[in-house]
Amino acid sequence: MNATPIRPGSNEHEELARLLPQPAERDLPSDRHRQLQEFVMNHIQQDLRQGTRNPRRSPRRLAYLTSAVAAVAVAAVAVGTGTFGGAGTSVTSGGGASTEPAPASASGRQILLAAATSAEKLPLDTRAYWYVKIVSTGSRNGESWLEETWTARDGRTWSRGSYQNPAAESASPPAFPEGKSDDKLIEVPQPSPFSLGGAKVTIEQLQAAPIEPTSLKAWIANLVRNSNIRTSAGKLTDAQQRQHVFEGLVSLVSLLPAPPSVRAAALRVIASYPNVTSLGPVDGGRGLLISFHPEESPARLVIDPQTGQLRRTNVLIPTFGGTLSNDGGTFAITAEWTNTLPQ
After folding, report:
1. Gyration radius from the chain CA atoms
2. DSSP state of 90
3. Cα gap 118→99, rounded to integer Å
4. CA triple 194-195-196, angle to 5 deg
């Protein structure tokens, strides 16, 4: 870098100050620019005073300081625009979109909050069918299965599935001669509404759910409290109701057709719970440990940080009702809107 020479007898303060770029509000606020300029110039003046006591080194020192001023100015602009990816700083692409919502060492709470920020920036999807595919592998009994559902906005639902059961296949005669179920697409005669923490909800209700975290949590709690959810012991206790609310929040980021703003709110509520632990980067996103029930081991979940969508889990919350499922395997989840209904 060629430094601009400073003429003997000139005002060094003015000559060096002019090397700093003018403040641009979109890159660095003017007050930050002023603070940076004062900081740099104070150090330059101290160095100049030292240079007076040793004049033979002044030209080299001033040339070095000239380069340093320019380097500090460039660094300041880089920090202002977020192009350096240090701890806690977003790394941006050419289009300005965050390519990594949270640092690799982020806590579970930070991961969820970063995913919420990414999710709420996604556009509202207006396609026709809510599509869910669940692939279960590695269960304790060796069973594997695949299930797909398509739900139209008016509630009509189509489903198909296939599964392999070693015990059934080895039976004589085998229960499934082909080794799997028929895998035919059927329309569900009486479509069931979606299940949110055990409470029945429609697509319209999910689309209109609150987008403020506290209000969303209260809305789910009211649905659970006023529903007819029962266990073998009777109505839900207060503790069980709170657990169902938590499960409902996880459903909103996994299997239910919640709009991006509602999913973002659900992620922020989940982040407020004390039982969320980070597993760091994993295949498919960021790994989390979340306790669904105090007496059971935490569930392992994988969150896509770009969409806020749950992609993999060892615990499944049924879409259309039922109890929490954990068969020792892994459930890979695809949940998205589509315009395509298979023939």
Report:
1. 29
2. -
3. 10
4. 120
Residue reference for tokens 């069931």? 192
Q: Which residue has the tokens 């994988």?
A: 302
**Does 259 sit behind a cis peptide bond, omega within 30 degrees of 0 on the bond before it?**
no
> Tokens representing 13?
């303060």
Residue corresponding to tokens 């949270």: 102
Dist CA 113 CA 264 (whole Å): 8
- The pLDDT assigned to 102 comes to 66
Nearest to 111, CA basis, from 276, 248, 333, 250: 276
Phi, psi for 295 (deg, rounded to 5) = -85, 0
How many whole angstroms separate alpha carbon 53 and alpha carbon 290?
65
For CA atoms 305, 84, 103, 107, the dihedral sign is negative
Q: How far apart are CA 284 and CA 86, in angstroms?
A: 23
Who contacts 67 (Cβ-Cβ below 8 Å, separation ≥6)?
A: 1, 3
Sequence-distant (6+) residues with CB within 8 A of 318 are 195, 325
- Cα-based distances in Å from 22 to 19, 25, 29, 62, 277: 9, 10, 11, 21, 45
**Rounded CA gap, 111 and 36, in Å?**
32
User: pLDDT of 141-196, one tens digit each?
Assistant: 888 889 999 999 999 999 999 887 666 556 555 554 454 556 889 998 876 789 99
Report how far apart, in Å, the C-alpha atoms of 225 and of each of 197, 198, 235, 256 are.
Answer: 10, 10, 10, 20
Residues of the chain with pLDDT under 70: 1-102, 104, 165-182, 191
Q: What angle (nearest 5°) sits at the alpha carbon of residue 263, between those of residues 262 and 265? A: 65
Largest CA distance in the chain: 104
DSSP assignment letter at 9: T
Which tokens go with 331? 């459930």
Q: Can you spell out the DSSP letters for 159-209? A: EEEEEE-HHHHHSSS-S-TTSS-----EE-SSPPPEEETTEEE-HHHHHT-
Q: Are 160 and 183 in contact (CB under 8 A)?
A: yes
